[in-house]
Amino acid sequence: MNSSVQVDLNHFIKHLVQALKPIAKAEDIDLLFTPSGKATLASVRPSILAGDLAHIIGKLVEFTPEQETITVSIEPVD
Q1: Rounded to an integer, what is the distance from CA 18 to the centroid of its chain?
Q2: CA 49, CA 78: separation in Å to the nearest integer?
Q3: Which of 1, 46, 53, 73 could form a disulfide with 34 if both were Cys (CB 3.0 to 4.6 A apart)?
């Protein structure tokens, strides 16, 4: 999808983190997502955001020692 759409980042990132958990688990790393307290709407290009976040999280998993936890969270900026 090349056009921007409005998404709730909590929902979007939650599902992305869920999809990446098996990769982290294979490295003996817990991968968690902590949502913000309210809906965080943003206009994004889903394929680009998913690819960029997956790349960043993948690098975090690569450089995180075994038996550690990576927590992904978002903080809305007003």
Answers
A1: 8
A2: 20
A3: 73
Query: 13, 72 in Cβ contact below 8 A?
Result: yes
CA 30, CA 61: separation in Å to the nearest integer? 9
Residues with Cβ within 8 Å of residue 61, at least 6 apart in sequence: 20, 23, 24, 27, 29, 31, 70
**Mode of pairing for the β-strands spanning 30-34 and 69-73:** parallel
27-77 pLDDT, tens digit per residue, is 999 999 999 888 889 999 999 999 999 999 999 999 999 999 999 998 877
Positive or negative torsion for Cα 47, 49, 50, 52 = positive
